[in-house]
Write a structure and sequence with these properties.
2 copies of one chain form a homodimer. Chain A is α/β, with parallel strands linked by helices. The first copy, chain A, contains 9 helices and 14 strands.
């Protein structure tokens, strides 16, 4: 089978053997935002033509390709959901020469009735859930996802706009004036995490990055790491308070994994790191429920 | 006497009678950022020449003119401080034809040893403290100030970067894509305040503005007001939690006063509104301690 994670800014495709082994892969810049109106079938065919020619007949897609801005909109499936529920909710897309199905995103509501959504991460979480059993999983990033996993299912999750807030606040507030980019400063990051766990609230803590600078207690090259520690510290504190978890399964690329692991350890929880390259395994699990493999 | 509030983006000057009555005033765009190197004496003389010619001999300055980017840096004075302490810490500036003194900003430290600063607001708070007695005061804005006032003194304060965070997050995140500017939407603002008081944390609540839109539960013309309610709600909740106050003295221009009053009432506290035009009265109080009037 062929698995495709087609996001906003990139297309990643995998040729997957029946046992789940990844036989071949490709990573292209052609995210859904670059596809012209009506251009999805041609864009996909161009990407996976060699594998179709080699005899593949089934393609499972996930990611923003199933959003309102994508090829076909796949309505969000309600949690709890695992591979079987997700497989049952996949959407068929007519395509000459192959059977194509689209993985839906997931939605959940918190105790106060406010919805949350994910699209693409559900496939990674399906793979993670199979490895971890009951757990709290964290996929950090622009929009970090924290998900409760039980018996292979995603039962609930929350999104934190941490990465995007960091970008906006570090570049478009007074903090930009006294910060310079450079390598991560672990000590300044740790101070930010400590601060995040104190009283006062995030909006007050942000101004502390300014006052610490004025008092010569935070250097320009430390400001971004301190701010990163503040924001990740607030995210981690809120996520742990909501779940009461003492152990987190963390799947992220090396740099972000190091930051989140450091923040989580400061908060007194155990962390297990996972390779973030989970999509192919998740698509294979869902394909198993479709009896494709 | 002459009182001047010289900030980053404007210069406001007052001719003040010995009893505190404002005899004349001017409001210019010439903030300290527009003044060339060494140009402060000439810029001030140009602004207040008619009043000097009419016989005024004393000028009290406050605001960012006393910052590192201003005319002369006036070191921050430590809280608690009232008119007498502030007057004693004013800095003389040599000036041909008048006695000039510069009001220092204030600094405080919280229980965790993190500093906070204000420059300009101390003068407004001196005026407010004389009117309110023991109170919790709120001066909302780009950098909102919350100050405890006791017997005419400012005993402690905190800054929240709410206005600036609103600007950065509303314009430079995914929320910008689905929001349109327009008149304030009180109902959406109130929903944001409600949300701020629920669990999950600000970084999670921000993403809610996105998901509510995706679920057709927040209109593009409501997004900015919802976000404003979220941020002001988080600020107010944190400030009230820290102080335990049940009554707030609020000094702000009409639009911001309406928003903060609504949020505070939702949080169950009483609010008294004050005219935000407090600088001339504050400068007069400090001048009294200098025995200028």
């Amino acid at each position: 089978m062929i698995g495709v994670d087609w996001g906003t800014s990139s297309l990643r495709a995998y040729r997957i053997a029946p046992d789940g082994a990844v036989l071949d892969r490709l990573d292209k810049a052609g995210g859904i935002m670059t596809v012209p109106e009506g251009g999805f079938p041609a864009a996909l065919r161009e990407a996976i033509a060699p594998w179709l020619a080699a005899g593949e007949t089934r393609v499972l897609l996930c990611g923003m390709v199933g959003s309102r801005q994508g090829w076909v909109e796949a309505p969000y499936l309600r949690c709890p959901a695992g591979p079987a529920e997700i497989a049952a909710a996949t959407i068929p897309i007519p395509f000459e020469g192959a059977e194509i199905r689209l993985v839906p995103g997931l939605t959940t509501e918190d105790a106060d009735g406010i919805p949350d959504v994910m699209r693409g991460e559900e496939t990674k979480l399906v793979a993670l859930a199979e490895r971890t059993g009951t757990a709290l999983a964290c996929l950090p990033g622009t929009h970090s996802k924290w998900a409760r996993l039980e018996q292979g299912c995603i039962t609930h999750f929350t999104t934190h706009m941490t990465g995007e807030a960091f970008g906006a606040l570090s570049a478009h507030t007074i903090l930009a004036r006294t910060s310079v980019e450079g390598p991560d400063q672990p000590e300044a990051f740790a101070r930010g995490v400590v601060r995040a766990r104190q009283q006062g609230g995030l909006l007050h803590h942000l101004f502390g990055a300014r006052t610490l600078h004025l008092m010569d207690r935070l250097k320009p090259e430390e400001t971004r790491s301190f701010l990163s520690g503040l924001l990740i510290g607030h995210e981690v504190t809120a996520a742990l308070a909501e779940t009461g978890a003492r152990h987190v399964e963390l799947a992220a690329a090396a740099r972000l994994a190091a930051l989140y692991e450091a923040a989580l350890i400061q908060c007194g929880v155990q962390v297990r790191r996972h390779d973030p390259d989970l999509v192919a395994a998740g698509l294979h699990h869902i394909a198993r429920s479709l009896q494709w493999v």
